[in-house]
Structure formats: C-alpha cells, structure tokens
C-alpha cells in the first residue's frame, strides 16, 4: 500500500477528469497524497534543500545537542531505564511567517524561502480550488472561509524541521502522532531519509519519499468544512540511527478570527444520502479558540477538541 502520487500538470489537459478523481480519492480515502509536476521548479526546490540544511548546520545543530530531548535521552540511558520518552519529540523546528524573525546567518536563506513560500501559497490555493470543485462548492469557497472577512487574512506559515539521527530510535519519536489543526498542509520532505507515517485502517504506513514531490494533507478545519468527507489523518515521524531528515511543511490555515463550519450544502447532501445521519456532527468553531485547545491537546484524539473549542467561546 502506498500513498497516491498524482501528476498535477494533468489537470490542464485531457486527463483532467481522471486527475480530479485521483485527488478526490486522495482526500477521501487517504487524507494524504503526493503531487509531482506541481509547477514548482526543481532549481528552486534544490535551493530550498540547500539553505535549510545549511541553516541547520550553521545555526541549529549545536543548540540541538544541548536540547531537552537529548538531555532526557541521556538521563534515561544513564539510569539504564528502557522506558520510552512519551512527552518530547526528537526534532529541531522553527517557523517562518510573513512577520517574524528569520534565521539570518545562512547565506540565501531569506531570499530562497521567501520565493518558495510565495510559490507554495499559490499551489495551496490551486489545491483548495480543486477541493472546492470536487466537493461541488463554489470556486474559492475554502479560501473565502479561511480568510474570514476583511482584515482577517488566512495564515500561511512554514515550519522548517530536522530530525537528526538518534542512537536509540526505539526510545523516542521524531514527532508524536497527531492530526494537523489547520487547513491544507504542503510538505516538502527529505528525498532520502523517510520516517513519516500515516495511520490507515489501523496500520502505520510510510509516506514514501518521492524526489521533489510535494505531499499534501488535510487538517482538522478541512474535515469540519467538508462535513467529514475529507478526514484529517493521524501521522507521526520516526527517527533512525542514521540520517538527518529534513522536512519543510507549509500550512494554509484559517485566520484566527475565522469561523469554520461545515458547508451547508454538504450537510444537506449528507442528509439526503442518509436521513439517519447526524447533521450536526461538526460544530461551528472560531479557529483561534480551536488553536487554544489544540495547544494543550495536540497529541490527543481530535473529536473532543471540537467540542472543547465550542465551550471555550
Ligand atoms: Fe503534522
């Protein structure tokens, strides 16, 4: 079983219907799919790999060696304790956004990542339009819902992570299992070092590295908006004794002030298809309230988060 790999360029041609169907299947059955020929140039992607790896070496690696997960693992080994560390991730991570501080010592980081983010945001919007069409929603519906009215723009962030080699991968996760809180996530993962797995039919399966592909997955807000047609799927990252996994994840999330609710036409449709169906399976949520709950409950089941976010209002 392998995550679907879809040629995005075929959307513009005679294979459009087949490609739309493949994306619908990726969203409905997998929650994850990989895009190739997505329009982001190989030259830019190569630069992204270089500046992110350079940045880790130059500005992050030493700090990681002194970080909490490394200390906790060393403590564990000193005490001869073989109990797995459940509350930390073997991860070095920082986020770049439009208005925060970026690493500044790595040559080319700012220019390259600025250019990359611009391209990825456009790709995210194209993917959302495909979802609109596949869900029979008006073109631009998801983007509009995420932008939440004037002055409340959607949030586009990019998380640059590394998962350095770990001498005892059986004792710690790279990133503990979770579902993503937001909208659409576009991941540029390492060509060689795997580790990302998704939970499908109760089984963890690998998201196989495909060079220069962009992995797309849907977050909790797409699940709400699609009234459960598209599920946000559990995933995790394992670490290995060899290799330093690089992972660049961009996320197109609603504005914190946007109210996210199931699209009414999808609720109607679900009721028509099955009159017994619970037509209030997903509540209306202000995304900022959801994020407050998520900050505390990221690694717990998502369903109670929806209810807790409603109570938080
Ligand atoms: Fe995630």
Automatic annotation (TrEMBL):
Which reaction(s) does its UniProt entry say it catalyses? 1-aminocyclopropane-1-carboxylate + L-ascorbate + O2 = ethene + L-dehydroascorbate + hydrogen cyanide + CO2 + 2 H2O
Q: Its Enzyme Commission number?
A: 1.14.17.4
Where does the record place the Fe2OG dioxygenase domain?
150-254
Q: Which UniProt keywords apply?
A: Coiled coil, Ethylene biosynthesis, Iron, Metal-binding, Oxidoreductase, Vitamin C
Biological process (GO) annotations held by this record are: ethylene biosynthetic process
Pfam families per the UniProt record, alphabetical: 2OG-FeII_Oxy, DIOX_N
Enzyme class comes to: oxidoreductase
The GO terms describing molecular function are:
1-aminocyclopropane-1-carboxylate oxidase activity; L-ascorbic acid binding; metal ion binding
Q: In which pathway does it act?
A: Alkene biosynthesis; ethylene biosynthesis via S-adenosyl-L-methionine; ethylene from S-adenosyl-L-methionine: step 2/2
Residue ranges of coiled coil: 73-133
What family, per the record? Belongs to the iron/ascorbate-dependent oxidoreductase family.
Q: What is this protein called?
A: aminocyclopropanecarboxylate oxidase
């Amino acid at each position: 079983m392998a995550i679907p790999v879809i040629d995005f360029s075929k959307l513009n041609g005679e294979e459009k219907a087949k490609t739309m169907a493949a994306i619908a299947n990726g969203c409905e059955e997998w929650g994850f799919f990989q895009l190739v020929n997505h329009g982001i140039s190989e030259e830019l992607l190569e630069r992204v790999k270089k500046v992110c790896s350079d940045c880790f070496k130059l500005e992050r690696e030493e700090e990681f060696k002194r970080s909490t997960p490394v200390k906790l693992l060393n403590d564990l080994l000193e005490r001869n304790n073989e109990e797995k560390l459940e509350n930390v991730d073997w991860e070095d991570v920082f986020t770049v956004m439009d208005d925060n501080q970026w690493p500044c010592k790595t040559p080319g980081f700012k220019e390259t990542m600025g250019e990359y983010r611009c391209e990825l945001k456009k790709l995210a919007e194209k993917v959302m339009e495909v979802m609109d069409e596949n869900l029979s929603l008006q073109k631009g519906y998801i983007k509009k819902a995420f932008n939440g009215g004037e002055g409340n723009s959607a949030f586009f962030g990019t998380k640059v992570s590394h998962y350095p080699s770990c001498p005892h991968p059986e004792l710690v996760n790279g990133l503990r299992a979770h579902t993503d809180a937001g909208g659409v996530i576009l991941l540029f993962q390492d060509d060689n070092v795997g580790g990302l797995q998704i939970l499908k039919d109760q089984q963890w399966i690998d998201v196989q590295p495909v060079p220069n592909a962009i992995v797309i997955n849907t977050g909790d807000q797409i699940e709400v908006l699609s009234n459960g047609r598209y599920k946000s799927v559990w995933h995790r990252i394992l670490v290995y004794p060899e290799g330093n996994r690089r992972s660049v994840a961009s996320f197109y999330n609603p504005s914190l002030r946007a109210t996210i609710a199931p699209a009414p036409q999808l609720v109607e449709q679900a009721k028509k298809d099955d009159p017994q169906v619970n037509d209030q399976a997903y509540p209306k949520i202000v995304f900022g309230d959801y994020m407050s709950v998520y900050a505390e409950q990221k690694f717990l089941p998502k369903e109670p988060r929806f209810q807790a976010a409603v109570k938080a209002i």
